[in-house]
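hey can u check if this looks right to u? its 67 residues, i copy pasted from the old doc so theres a chance i mangled smth
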Amino acid sequence: MLSGTIVKIISIILIMVVGIILVLGIGTLFKGGDVSKKYSNRLMQLRVLLQFIAIIALVGFAYFFKN
C-alpha cells in the first residue's frame, strides 16, 4: 500500500503539474497571434482534465488515508 509520504509527494506533483499547465495556458493567451490560436485553448482543456484527475486523486487519498 502507499505510505503517507508517497501520497504527499504524488499530491504535490499533481498540483504542480496543474499549475504549470495553467501558467503555460495563460502565457500563450497573452502572447496572442498564431501561437495563441493554436495552443491556448488546448492547454486550458488539458488543465481542466488534469485538474479533474488531481481532484479525484486527492479526494481518494483523503478517503483511504483518513488517519
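The mean pLDDT is 88.
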